[in-house]
Amino acid sequence: MQDDSHSQTLADILSSRCTTKAMDERPWPIPQPDPKLIEQILSAAQEAPFHKPAARELRKQGLPGIQPWRCYTLDAKQCRTLRQHLIDTGDTTKIPKLLAVADYLIQVTWLPNPSTEPSSELFDPSIQNMEHIAAASAAIQNMLLRATSLDIPNYWSSGGALRTPEIFTLLSIPESEILLGSLLFFPKDLDGADVKGGSLRPSRSLKEDWSRPVRLRP
Ligand SMILES: Cc1cc2nc3c(=O)[nH]c(=O)nc-3n(C[C@H](O)[C@H](O)[C@H](O)COP(=O)(O)O)c2cc1C
Fold this sequence. Notes:
Order of helices and strands: HEHHEHHEHEHEE
Structural class: alpha+beta
CATH superfamily: NADH Oxidase
Radius of gyration: 19 Å
Distance between the termini: 33 Å
Number of helices: 7
Shape: globular
Strand order of the largest sheet: 2-3-5-4
Helix content: 25-40%
CATH architecture: 3-Layer(aba) Sandwich
Bound molecules: flavin mononucleotide
Largest sheet: 4 strands, antiparallel
CATH topology: NADH Oxidase
């Protein structure tokens, strides 16, 4: 059991996590890579809960870990190269603008169990797949919270232009994996960037509107 100050620290980190989307048309100077930072963020994912191992076949095709998520990290230099690639291939979305500022991008995928029958669906609607996504989401949230604790502005994007098979091939990500989030980590000093928050943040419902006590009849 932790003391009150420990608990308060966690409460403070939880309440200060927020989406920060930092963008610029022009690429920002590339800072020295900070391997300790990425190590701290990945270590947070390492602590996330997961219920079932990823399918054995998939573990043979790519990285071998049993967790049902994978993280592919790009430092600022790689972000700028990826930005230029997107611009050169006609991308006019906000992704190149985010990659112009980001110190790190982590492409987080999850590993759906291979379908037993031919299917045109992205993945089978099984409980195990649901739990794989849940576990990968817990890993993402751990990373966002760790970044928040280090005062690193961060953003969980669905990926947009970073979801395509071409980008998977470019980053050598197995096509059997599904992108769950493109996590962007920005410099602490965002002076000069176009900064936006999460669009739904101001309209969050109160917990009374999404939770209730359950009372069973005696
Ligand atoms: C699974 C997931 C995907 C998201 N994808 C996007 C996205 O593609 N673009 C975006 O602007 N925000 C995205 N967000 C961030 C949400 O917009 C944001 O969390 C929400 O507006 C609440 O703001 P807050 O994170 O500051 O509390 C995503 C969040 C989650 C959980």
